[in-house]
């Protein structure tokens, strides 16, 4: 990322750089897979539906819940699901992720309206940090851990100290 921006734009980010940063996109997607903003998506059935190959009928008006957190950590869709592997979201590998197995912003017509804005804002902030700093956990601090109570994810109690080392322009 640093080399791309320095070569093309004298060290300044632009929209095109962000759009071409495939690994940055993969890192964000993998982060959203492991730590989705919402754990469950709920929809109300609008007409009776028989699940193919079963005798299960979902009645009109019934609420159907999709366990996003569980789907994102299911080995059927993501080998080694607990590992942070951004490469699974690179363009050449995305085809291996079944449709409906990646739902950080919801699905269908009620998908988050601000999805693209949120992704662009996150990529821009992350790219700016990566361009200017080398980030690592400060000495004496362990890997981050999260509480995953129903419907919300938050850092466990404690302090997270990040060490920032300024990257020198060459």
UniProtKB/TrEMBL annotation:
<comment type="similarity">
    <text>Belongs to the cytochrome P450 family.</text>
</comment>
<dbReference type="InterPro" id="IPR017972">
    <property type="entry name" value="Cyt_P450_CS"/>
</dbReference>
<keyword id="KW-0349">Heme</keyword>
<dbReference type="GO" id="GO:0004497">
    <property type="term" value="F:monooxygenase activity"/>
</dbReference>
<dbReference type="GO" id="GO:0016705">
    <property type="term" value="F:oxidoreductase activity, acting on paired donors, with incorporation or reduction of molecular oxygen"/>
</dbReference>
<keyword id="KW-0479">Metal-binding</keyword>
<dbReference type="GO" id="GO:0005789">
    <property type="term" value="C:endoplasmic reticulum membrane"/>
</dbReference>
<feature type="binding site" description="axial binding residue">
    <location>
        <position position="112"/>
    </location>
    <ligand>
        <name>heme</name>
    </ligand>
</feature>
<dbReference type="GO" id="GO:0020037">
    <property type="term" value="F:heme binding"/>
</dbReference>
<keyword id="KW-0256">Endoplasmic reticulum</keyword>
<comment type="function">
    <text>May be involved in the metabolism of insect hormones and in the breakdown of synthetic insecticides.</text>
</comment>
<dbReference type="InterPro" id="IPR002403">
    <property type="entry name" value="Cyt_P450_E_grp-IV"/>
</dbReference>
<dbReference type="InterPro" id="IPR001128">
    <property type="entry name" value="Cyt_P450"/>
</dbReference>
<dbReference type="Pfam" id="PF00067">
    <property type="entry name" value="p450"/>
</dbReference>
<keyword id="KW-0492">Microsome</keyword>
<dbReference type="InterPro" id="IPR036396">
    <property type="entry name" value="Cyt_P450_sf"/>
</dbReference>
<keyword id="KW-0408">Iron</keyword>
<dbReference type="InterPro" id="IPR050476">
    <property type="entry name" value="Insect_CytP450_Detox"/>
</dbReference>
<protein>
    <submittedName>
        <fullName>Cytochrome P450 9e2-like</fullName>
    </submittedName>
</protein>
<keyword id="KW-0560">Oxidoreductase</keyword>
<dbReference type="GO" id="GO:0005506">
    <property type="term" value="F:iron ion binding"/>
</dbReference>
<keyword id="KW-0503">Monooxygenase</keyword>
<keyword id="KW-0472">Membrane</keyword>
